[in-house]
Design brief:
Blueprint lengths: L1 H17 L5 H30 L7 H39 L5
Length: 104
């Protein structure tokens, strides 16, 4: 999981570098991703530290809450970015439809 979060961090850095060329909605998606990825990274780091401290922590409520927080951050990130992408695609489709000639 740590590797996946680190890979997402690298992708975010690449996207942030391309942000000046992004559309307004793409830039918004990039901005929304940073705090949620940071929450995920912090949660994964905390979960790993708890397991390194004592493997029996896997049954603790605190550990379970930490994992739930990671899941919540991941889900929120997915939903936010997905909503922005859906809106962007719908807007592009609407623009395309408005430019098509009406035939009867």
């Amino acid at each position: 999981m740590k590797d996946h979060v680190n890979d997402m961090g690298k992708m975010l850095a690449e996207m942030e570098a391309l942000k000046p060329q992004a559309t307004l909605l793409q830039a918004k998606a990039i901005e929304c991703a940073r705090p949620q990825l940071q929450e995920m990274a912090d949660g994964v780091e905390s979960a790993i530290a708890a397991l390194n401290e004592d493997r029996r922590n896997v049954i603790s409520q605190k550990y379970k809450a930490t994992l739930h927080g990671v899941w919540t951050s991941a889900d929120r990130l997915y939903r936010t970015v997905d909503t922005i992408i859906d809106y962007h695609e719908a807007r592009n489709r609407m623009t395309s439809l408005m430019q098509e000639p009406v035939t009867r």
